[in-house]
Amino acid sequence: MGDGLGNSAASHTQPLCLFLCGDVMPGRGIDRILPHPGRPQLFEPYVRSAKEYVKFAERASGKLPLPAGYAYPWGDTLTVLAQRGPHARIINLETAVTSSDAHWPNKAIHYRMHPANLACLTEASIDCCVLANNHVLDWGRAGLDETLRSLHEAGIRTAGAGRDASQAAAPAIVDIAGRGRVLVYAYGCESAGVPQAWAARAGRAGVNYLPDYSLERADAIARHVARGRCAGDVVVISLHWGGNWGFGVSSMARAFARRLVDEGAADVIHGHSSHHIQGIEIYHGKPVLYGCGDFLNDYEGIPGHESYRPDLTLMYFPVVNPASGNLVEFTAVPMQIRHFRTGRAPDDGASWLHATLSRESSRYGVDVKRDACTNTFTLRW
């Protein structure tokens, strides 16, 4: 977990390893099996209690531990993190951390994890939670306020949401002792179902909202990043964008990502929203993750979209040279969500992930090699 004293000239020479993953949703069904579950009431069209999601999963793969320990949902993730030792751990937290009952009206899905279960995140030593997504205000602005307060009190940095527009647009800053800083800027996009009404304003809490992928908006982001960036900083632009299903990336989204790189705004683009993995592009030495897939959810036992294998996911480990901002290496570890926890993917699952990531990334000139001994993927470009 990053905990240093800031930048120094010497810190710019040593590569930084990041851990990135897609949507982490420890609310609803997963919250039910943790030691301090909140109220189960839901306002979904067909499911009125979070307890039902526990039943779905148990019918699919057997009895769940009740209660489970705080580390339980991470499964093998913690072992992989201990082995890799990334300098910064960054996730998209797609749930409110609140006991609020003020659910957002006319919204089909509402995620929340009780604040007393926040140790679920600290067990994984998460450095930064991206909050610019379509679930962080599921329980209203009171729920967002409690989410921010709970995370900050636990020492977890946040990006992409705040008590006003300035806070929502500010980066999370992860100081790495003796090595420099990682800056995380986060944006929630209309294309991923983020309501325009959630946009933060002066004097109004909300998310750092991105209504479109215009090049002018990319240029504005670049100017904003330039005002806060110091020499040697590694900048991650985290985007909750696009639909849930499908491998295609729009020409506008790709042009937007490339513009962020061309204008010096991004060393890593961390894209998420789709419930399954998408391809990776390396553009001018900068990785663009178009869709990281879900990393933890309570969807087990719910049929539909099986061909996309939403149960399969990846741990992403880009290594960046702070002096140039360019990628040094990029590896990924195949994982599977099962029994409300993320474990190492079985051989058939790892094979599917390798074939899919290879196919989708080859569109951008990226080759994916699989090490059969370690079951690790390495990107070549």
Description:
This protein is α/β, with parallel strands linked by helices. It has one domain: Metallo-dependent phosphatases (Purple Acid Phosphatase, chain A, domain 2). Helices cover 23% and strands 27% of the residues. It contains 9 helices and 21 strands. The strands form 4 sheets. Strands 1, 2, 5, 6, 16, 17, 18, 19, 20 and 21 form a 10-stranded mixed sheet that branches. Helix 7 packs parallel to helix 8. The longest helix is centred in the C-terminal third of the chain and has 16 residues.
Total domain units = 1
How widely separated are the two ends? 29 Å
Number of strands: 21
**The CATH fourth-level homologous superfamily:** Metallo-dependent phosphatases
Produce a short descriptive summary.
The chain is α/β, with parallel strands linked by helices.
Which features would summarize this protein structure in a list?
Purple Acid Phosphatase, chain A, domain 2, alpha/beta, 7-stranded mixed sheet, 10-stranded mixed sheet, 381 residues, globular
What is this structure's SSE topology?
Blueprint: E1 16-24, H1 29-33, H2 51-61, H3 77-84, E2 88-93, E3 96-97, E4 112-113, H4 119-122, E5 128-130, H5 140-153, E6 157-159, E7 161-162, H6 165-169, E8 172-176, E9 180-189, E10 206-207, E11 209-210, H7 215-228, E12 234-240, H8 251-262, E13 268-272, E14 280-283, E15 286-289, E16 294-296, E17 312-320, E18 327-338, E19 341-344, H9 347-362, E20 367-371, E21 376-380
Parallel strand pairs: 1-2, 1-16, 2-5, 3-4, 5-6, 9-11, 9-12, 12-13, 13-15
Antiparallel strand pairs: 1-17, 7-10, 8-9, 14-15, 17-18, 18-19, 18-21, 20-21
Helix pairs in contact: 7-8
